[in-house]
Design goal:
The chain is mainly β. It has one domain: Jelly Rolls (Sandwich), CATH 2.60.120. Helices cover 0% and strands 61% of the residues. The chain contains no helices and six strands. Strands 1, 2, 3, 4, 5 and 6 form a six-stranded antiparallel β-sheet that branches. The radius of gyration is 14 Å and the shape is elongated. It starts with 11 loop residues before the first strand and ends with a strand.
Length: 113
């Protein structure tokens, strides 16, 4: 199955109310000829309560797990909106490393280019 492509200006879910640590959906980042690096925003939100959250925005030139690098990290217990600038990548994902239970926590993440 081909990797879905992000559409500029459209927030796209990487995680939807997950309850355990997991790598979210990987997306291809559209090529912009002659435009260079780009900014990518991402949003996390937490339902319920959690005592620990660690999510990483990761990017790579090839869709190979070993090639993904951490671009940004969120540890907010309530969620947040973040932007990373000057990225030259072809693939992007959110990796939920930790979601420690408080009262039935859920994690949702979105990516926006």
């Amino acid at each position: 199955m081909p990797t879905p492509t992000l559409m500029p200006g459209t927030p796209t879910l990487s995680h939807s109310a997950v309850t355990a640590a997991v790598v979210g959906t990987t997306f291809a980042v559209p090529i912009r000829p002659n435009q260079g690096a780009r900014s990518i925003s991402w949003r996390t939100s937490i339902g319920g309560t959690s005592v620990a959250v660690n999510a990483k925005l990761q990017g790579a030139m090839n869709d190979v797990d070993a090639q993904y690098a951490d671009l940004d990290t969120s540890a907010s217990l309530t969620g947040e909106y973040r932007t990373v600038n000057n990225l030259l990548i072809r693939f992007i994902r959110v990796n939920l490393i930790t979601l420690t239970a408080g009262a039935a926590p859920t994690f949702t993440s979105e990516i926006l280019i």
